[in-house]
Hints:
- Helix content is about 30%, strand content about 25%.
- It is of the alpha+beta class.
- The chain has one domain: Endonuclease, Chain A, CATH 3.30.870.
- A hairpin with a 2-residue loop joins β8 and β9.
- α2 runs parallel beside α3.
- The longest helix is centred in the N-terminal third of the chain and has 16 residues, at about 45-60.
Amino acid sequence: xxxxxxxxxxxxxxDEGDTWTGLVTSANAHDASSAHSNIAVRxxxxxxxxxxxxxxxxxxxxxxxxxDDWPLARAGAANLEQDGATLSVLSExxxxxxxxxxxxxxxxxxxxxxxxxxxxxxxLIEALAAARERGVEVRLLLDPNKDAFGREKNGMPNRQxxxxxxxxxVDIRWCATHGEQCHTKMLLRYGDDGAxxxxxxxxxxxxxxxxxxxxxxxxxxxxxxxxxxxxALATARDAFQRRWSNPxxxxxxxxxxxxxxxxxxxxxxxxxxxxxxxxxx
Length: 281
């Protein structure tokens, strides 16, 4: 508790008779979070049992009674659809490794769309800057970190990280929040229309911070790899684009300048807080 460690997972697994269905989401299931923006991926098949097994491990660690009647999944199973799409469950540091691999594998001319509540993890920040340097189109849609359940926040860590990445040439916009939080945690990699290489979506509970990605919190995400026109990937891409571009006169996001912060003192404080873990992010 003193280091704000948490079981930060947000999952649901249900038995639907002939199959199992899983839900992995960024949404906390309580009234105070009901106004936040979030994302979820729903899926069926072997990966849903993998999700159940990850929860079984957490339950055993927490001293739960015997769980001999829990159904078993194949170790490391991936959900393989007829169209070649795969979905796998990730937890804790495996989320970090998948994020880094996806960013580092992005090629010139491809796109990386990132929408996240907290971004502070140093290897990820460096990987995003390097991707931009080699010609990847990187867009960040960040929460301005100004609201937390009725309390005003100081903008950390997103405004400090945004300053760094904006200087590196990354395109950045802020969610236009009004007391609620932009609580999505997702990364989407895709090529231009007609690209042969599969697109990748990583989504779930984990913020892009040291606490969430370096085996301190319990976290659950999924990674979906499929053709860019796969319905789930197309939905994620459209949702990000809608927030980014403010269609039909609706305000979903604001330009970088709206919350730009170039204070070197606050930047140094963010680096100290990320390194030590003495923070709420």
